[in-house]
Every structure is written in C-alpha cells, then in structure tokens.
Amino acid sequence: DAKTTQPPSMDCAEGRAANLPCNHSTISGNEYVYWYRQIHSQGPQYIIHGLKNNETNEMASLIITEDRKSSTLILPHATLRDTAVYYCIVRKINFGNEKLTFGTGTRLTIIP
Amino acid sequence: DSGVTQTPKHLITATGQRVTLRCSPRSGDLSVYWYQQSLDQGLQFLIQYYNGEERAKGNILERFSAQQFPDLHSELNLSSLELGDSALYFCASSGGTGAGTEAFFGQGTRLTVV
User: Fold this and answer.
1) A residues 3-42 near B, CB within 8 Å?
2) What order do you get walking across the sheet with A31-38 strand by strand?
3) What is the DSSP letter of A78?
4) Most confident of A89-93, B71-75, B101-105
5) A64-75, pLDDT tens digit by residue?
6) CB contact, 8 Å: B96 with chain A?
7) CA pair distance A102, A29, nearest whole angstrom
C-alpha cells in the first residue's frame, strides 16, 4: 500500500471549516483514498473515501487533486465532537477488500 | 453503532494465561480484520479473514491466532500472555454483498495483563 503523510496536529476554531491535508505521492491507479477518525479510544469511524473525483457526504467532503498525489478532508462546520485523530489511508479495492494500514494520523483539536 | 460487536469490552487477566476475544461482523460482511492498539500507539494490523479463510497477515505474534467460523464471527486467541500484550483490540468488518467497501470497526476489547 502507498504511504501517506499527514501533519501530526492541527487546531481549528469551533464553527469554522477544518481542512486536513494528506500527501500520497506514490499512490497507484487502483488505490482509493480513505479517511477514518478515532475519538479517544473508541473504534475508528469511517468518514469518506474516493478514487479521483471529489466526494461529499453528510460528514465531510474529500477533495483529491487531479494528479491524485494529495487530498484534503474538509469538515465544513467543526464542532467540539470533531476533536479526534484523523487518518488518511490509501487502499486497493480487490475482491475480498484489502486491509487498512493506519499511519500516525493528524490530531485535530477543535477550540471553543 | 457500527453494527460490529466485540465481546468482552474489558478483560483483566494474569501473565501466562490465555484469552479469547470475539467479534461478530455486520450482517452479511465477509471480511473480518483484527487490530491491536497499545497505549499511545497506532493501530497495528494483525490478521484478516475472508469468508472463513485467512487472507492477510500482519505482525501477529506466534502466540496469537485467529479463526473465522461458518457463521462469519471471528475469534482472536491470545496465549502465554505478557504484560506487553495489554492493549485495545479492535475488530472490523467489510465486504457484504452489494455493500460498499468501507470497513466498520467495533468498540474494541480492552485487555489488561497483570
């Protein structure tokens, strides 16, 4: 699996958009970008994933650059409950689904 | 609620003992993954099963083993426990027929070895 690079920590003011960057310069054509988050010691929570088009769901938006070497997760109106460690993962989608390989992630702190 | 159920939630046991952690995947999911997260450490992939067969193996110790049963639930067996095995153990599932490829995680089993 391709490796990802994320900043170790970020702060964001409550109510503002949180933009979390991720570099995945060695991503291959059949690898998707997935985002998960882990709040305290809870189980990781799926947020969103995409291949090359931008994606949006009820939780977040995912912007992937045209060359697919980087992406940004956007939480449009951050709340205190969004404080968590956010993981950007690249993953092949094959029959039976590949494992998720977690890096060190970005610790996002939402400031009141 | 992710739909993945792990039992027990907490487990305290002594060194040298053996324990079994159980995971019930989401209905219809064929893949089960096990992860270990030690204190202040990242999520380490241990092993994956797909429809009863081992599909991928990470840095799983020889003292650890797992299996997936015909009803698709999975068990992770940890033996000859050491203090360093104290960790959160997460199970995830994915790959239901017609479903997306996202993996959903349970709330974990916190194992404390004393």
Assistant:
1) 32, 34, 38, 41-42
2) A9-13, A106-111, A84-92, A31-38, A45-50
3) -
4) B71-75
5) 999 999 999 999
6) no
7) 20
Give yes or no for a contact between B49 and B68, defined as CB atoms under 8 angstroms apart: yes
Strands B10-13 and B109-113: parallel
A100 touches A36 (CB < 8 A): yes
Distance from CA of B105 to the nearest CA of A (A): 5
Residues in B touching A87 (Cβ below 8 Å): 43
Contact by Cβ (8 Å): A20, A106: yes
Q: Which amino acid is at B64?
A: F
Residue A95 has pLDDT above 70, yes or no: no
Cα A36 to the chain's mean position, in Å? 6
pLDDT (0 to 100) of residue B73: 97
Give residue A1's pLDDT: 60
Token pair for B1 = 């609620």
Q: Which residue has the tokens 């241990």?
A: B46
The counts of H helices and E strands in chain A are: 0, 9
Q: Is A90 exposed, middle or buried (0-12, 13-18, 19+ CB in 10 A)?
A: buried
First to last CA, chain A: 37
Cβ atoms A77, A17 nearer than 8 A: yes
- The overall longest dimension of chain B from CA atoms, in Å, is 44
